[in-house]
């Protein structure tokens, strides 16, 4: 069902709509439209002539109802961006915040180690780049997680 993230936003919309476990008609009803309209909006075969195109509001609503964020990720990918879920850290202790800060250092170390290993022989392989990319995302995610926790410490 939820496997890879499509590169195309319209393909992602199609897949999220059609992968909804309760079926397209139930999703359409939750969105306040007919199933036929939703099928047409999700139809990627004839987007040029189809007057029922998914709107931004449709994409947000489908994502919220299904809990499937492939449309968001495809949109980010289209723009050369990535997105991360923001964890709820409002109930995390100060000691846990310190652990998050040290996690940033550890993830940074993993990233720098992967870059260093890849550069050791003077050339990059696709496999090495894949490892570097994964380590970079984990590094950034650790930073985002810590910053979100710090937002919870702000005294109004």
Q: If you had to describe this structure to a student in words, what would you say it looks like?
A:
With 156 residues, the protein is mostly helical. The protein folds into two domains: 70 residues; 58 residues. The protein is built from seven helices and no strands. Helix 6 packs antiparallel against helix 7. The radius of gyration is 20 Å and the shape is flat. The mean pLDDT is 86.
Number of domains: 2
Number of helices: 7
SSE series? HHHHHHH
Based on DSSP secondary structure assignment, what is the total number of beta strands? 0
Low-confidence stretches: none
Gross geometry? flat
The major β-sheet equals:
none
Percent range for β-strand residues: under 5%
Query: Whole-number radius of gyration?
Result: 20 Å
Average pLDDT for all residues: 86
* Oligomeric assembly: single chain
Short synopsis of the structure:
The chain is mainly α and 156 residues long. The protein folds into two domains: 9-78; 94-151.
Which helices and strands, and how do they pair?
Layout: H1 9-19, H2 24-31, H3 35-42, H4 56-66, H5 70-78, H6 94-119, H7 126-151
Quick tags:
single chain, 156 residues, mainly alpha, 2 domains, 63% helix
């Amino acid at each position: 069902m939820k496997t890879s993230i499509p590169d195309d936003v319209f393909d992602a919309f199609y897949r999220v709509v059609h992968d909804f476990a309760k079926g397209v008609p139930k999703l359409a009803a939750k969105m306040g439209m007919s199933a036929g309209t939703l099928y047409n909006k999700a139809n990627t075969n004839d987007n040029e002539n189809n007057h029922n195109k998914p709107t931004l509001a449709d994409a947000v609503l489908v994502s919220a109802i299904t809990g499937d964020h492939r449309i968001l990720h495809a949109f980010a990918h289209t723009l050369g961006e990535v997105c991360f879920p923001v964890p709820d850290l409002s109930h995390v202790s100060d000691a846990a915040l310190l652990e998050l800060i040290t996690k940033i250092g550890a993830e940074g170390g993993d990233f720098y180690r992967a870059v260093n290993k890849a550069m050791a022989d003077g050339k990059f392989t696709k496999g090495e780049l894949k490892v570097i990319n994964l380590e970079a995302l984990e590094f950034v995610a650790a930073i985002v997680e810590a910053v979100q926790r710090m937002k919870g410490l702000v005294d109004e």
